[in-house]
Every structure is written in structure tokens, then in C-alpha cells.
């Protein structure tokens, strides 16, 4: 595949949305779709769609449109969804438990291997088939198992400490739910889900719309 | 306050981050900070910071920097955090329960008034002090109570239906956790938290970094 480098973060952030819409089309047995039809569904312009997909290779055919299943397969591969990822969750509080219980991720090839917590009351319990282990075992677990992604769900005060342990143990990808900006080595990827910032954006927009009414 | 209009979404998305850092500074009794010092902490350039804050008014003083408490108060007000918001959660599954249990939002002036679910086993239970009610009562609850923000945590198949009910009952702001793009009237604000898209972005970046290694 002619995959081009230096793809902007803006494009990268749109790709999962293509995946979501194409998956729905495939589930509804749609065989092919033009960039105009896709545009109507997804809300990006047709030219935006053609440009985005061009970043990743030569999809689509003039006058025919996109073959849905083929494009879906290629976008899955671009997103790395054709592989399996071993994940661990650190922090079995509200968010950690919700993520652990969310079977959608499991179906999407993210395989939860262990959950870690500091709370003795939680250690030994199981969420689905996965046991909650003592956070003291975190380092040795990472060293003895192949872990691709660590999901940080600890309170903000503990997040950087946990981050230091896991990155020095070899973790290269972090999905971070703690409301802090983690300091990581250059070769470690962090994707943040900052819920409180999202909620503040909403309250900002709500107020702004009232002011301009 | 000289608040300017047409502020870009990129700026708006950065404001909660300023709030988070300024709050930490205030909690650590820091009285004032220069844009250069703030830049080191927050990771935006000093000129970016000055430019961002200028969108909202005339903060800071040449040679003195920003008065932390004053700037924090003004940013709180810009974000609408000096007001109270009545919220409801629709969907008491994993994510809905996690949000309901997350007391941080309560402290941040988002007041959870009710939770709705379709599952008879959940109806009547309480999360913290808030009871889970029958989703059949959703419409009348919104009409009889002042609800500012609805938090949608139902499965994707039900999300648009719930959205239609709440917007036609008068809801103007939605925090949406369902993995769909909701269709709403023009005067309704939607802020999405698409967890699976975030996870896909991470797996994309992880693969990209392996490819370019």
C-alpha cells in the first residue's frame, strides 16, 4: 500500500470516523458508495473525503465510488485493527471498571490482560474474566508479559508515578484518563481522554450561546 | 469584560487546560505567573498563551505577568463554571454509572438530578443520592424540571431516539458518549466523547510508530 508519511493529526483523528461509518454500511450490506453519498452521511465534504483517503493510498474509482468492504478492510489495517493488542488497566475505580466492562473494546481486538489497583479491598476481585492485582506487581507483570497498551485510570496525583513505572518497564502506548498531561519519553505515545475538559467545553459553548442569543 | 466573538474551536478547546493549570497554581498559593513560566508548564508557546487569553479580554500586565487568582476567576467565568448546571444521565450502564459516581463533576458545579434507564432491574436503584428512573418518565421530567445538560450513555442503537425525545422536550446541551453523530436542531450543542475513536487513534499511532521505526 502506498502509505504516505507525515499525515496531519487532523486527518488521523478523522479516520476512526470513516471506519465507524463504513462498518455500518458493510453491516447493512451496502457494496459501494460514492464520496458524495459518504459525504452526506458523515458530514465532511466529498472533496475532504477524497483528500483524506488519498493520504493513505489509492482508493476509489472515478464513476464507481468506493468498494465498501475493501475500503473498510484497508482502513481497519491503517488503524491497526487487524492486529491484537494486549492491554492492562491501572486503577479499578469508576472509569477503570467501566472500561474493563466495556466488551466492545474486546471485540475490537483490544484484549484486557490484567487490572491493577492499590486498594486491598479490590485486589483479588474479578471484572469479567480479569482479576484485579496488586499495583506492586505492575512492573514485573509488564516485564514478563507482552503488554501493548496501558490504560491509566488512577487519580491525577498518582498518574505521573504510574506513568514513570510503566514507561521504564517498556510500555510504548498509553490511553490516559487521568486529568493530567503526562511526561513521557519521546518514543511513547499518549492518547488522552480528559472528561472534565470535555464537560467544560460544553459549559463554555452553552454559556456562549446564551450570551449571543 | 471585553469578550470577543467568533473565537475558534481550537482556542475554546485549550481554555479548559488553562483552567486546570491555573487551578493547580492557585492551590499551591502561586500569586502570579508570566506567560513564559506558564508556557513551560502547559507546553504551549508564550505567544500562543498571550494570543489565546487576549481572545477573552485584557489579562496580564507587561513585566508583572498574570495574577493567578484573578485569571482563574475570569477563566472560570468564561467557561461558565461560576454557575450551576442541572444534569441528567440517560443510560445507567458502565459509562453512565461511572459518570454518576464521579464526584469531581459535582464539585465542579454540575449537579446530577436524575438517571434514566430502560432496564427494570436498575429502575429504583440509587447511585450516590440519585435514583434511577424509568426512561418512560424522561420527557415529563425534563418538562417539569430545569435540566441544563443531558448526558447520553445509551447504546448507539438507542442514542438518536433518546436525543429526539430530549431535544423536543427543550434540552439545549448534550454530552454524548454513544458512538454516533447525533442529529440535533441548530440551537442544540453536542459535545462528544467517542471512546472507541480515541482508542483507534492510539492504535493507529502505535502502528505508525512501528512502521517508521
TrEMBL record, chains A, B:
4Fe-4S among keywords: no
Chief place of localization: cytoplasm
One Pfam entry name: Put_DNA-bind_N
NCBIfam families: PRK05472.1-3, PRK05472.1-4, PRK05472.2-2, PRK05472.2-3, PRK05472.2-4, PRK05472.2-5
Molecular functions (GO terms): DNA binding; DNA-binding transcription factor activity
Protein residues bound to NAD(+): 91-96
Entry-linked PANTHER family: REDOX-SENSING TRANSCRIPTIONAL REPRESSOR REX, REDOX-SENSING TRANSCRIPTIONAL REPRESSOR REX 1
Family the entry assigns: Belongs to the transcriptional regulatory Rex family.
Keywords: Cytoplasm, DNA-binding, NAD, Repressor, Transcription, Transcription regulation
InterPro entries reported in the protein's UniProt record: CoA-bd (IPR003781), NAD(P)-bd_dom_sf (IPR036291), Rex_actinobacterial-type (IPR058236), Rex_DNA-bd_C_dom (IPR009718), Tscrpt_rep_Rex (IPR022876), WH-like_DNA-bd_sf (IPR036388), WH_DNA-bd_sf (IPR036390)
GO-annotated biological processes: negative regulation of DNA-templated transcription; response to redox state
Quaternary data: Homodimer.
GO cellular component: cytoplasm
Function: Modulates transcription in response to changes in cellular NADH/NAD(+) redox state.
Transcription regulation listed as a keyword: yes
Name of the protein: Redox-sensing transcriptional repressor Rex
Location of the protein in the cell: Cytoplasm
DNA-binding region(s), residue ranges: 17-56
Domain (CoA-binding): residue spans on this chain: 80-181
Signal peptide region: none
Amino acid at each position: 500500500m502506498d502509505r504516505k508519511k507525515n499525515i496531519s493529526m487532523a486527518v488521523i483523528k478523522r479516520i476512526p470516523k470513516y471506519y465507524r461509518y463504513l462498518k455500518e454500511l458493510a453491516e447493512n450490506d451496502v457494496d459501494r458508495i460514492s464520496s458524495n453519498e459518504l459525504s452526506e452521511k458523515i458530514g465532511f465534504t466529498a472533496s475532504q473525503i477524497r483528500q483524506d483517503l488519498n493520504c493513505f493510498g489509492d482508493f476509489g474509482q472515478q464513476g464507481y465510488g468506493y468498494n465498501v468492504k475493501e475500503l473498510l478492510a484497508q482502513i481497519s489495517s491503517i488503524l491497526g485493527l487487524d492486529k491484537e493488542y494486549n492491554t492492562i488497566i491501572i486503577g479499578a475505580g469508576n472509569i477503570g471498571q467501566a472500561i474493563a466492562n466495556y466488551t466492545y473494546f474486546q471485540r475490537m481486538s483490544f484484549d484486557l490482560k490484567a487490572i491493577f489497583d492499590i486498594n486491598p479491598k479490590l485486589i483479588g476481585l474479578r471484572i469479567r474474566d480479569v482479576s484485579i492485582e496488586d499495583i506492586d506487581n505492575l512492573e514485573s507483570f509488564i516485564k514478563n508479559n507482552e503488554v501493548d497498551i496501558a490504560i491509566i485510570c488512577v487519580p491525577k496525583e498518582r498518574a505521573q508515578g504510574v506513568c514513570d513505572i510503566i514507561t521504564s518497564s517498556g510500555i510504548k502506548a498509553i490511553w490516559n484518563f487521568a486529568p493530567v498531561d503526562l511526561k513521557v519519553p519521546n518514543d511513547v505515545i499518549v492518547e488522552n481522554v480528559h472528561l472534565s475538559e470535555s464537560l467544560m467545553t460544553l459549559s463554555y459553548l452553552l454559556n456562549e450561546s446564551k450570551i449571543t442569543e
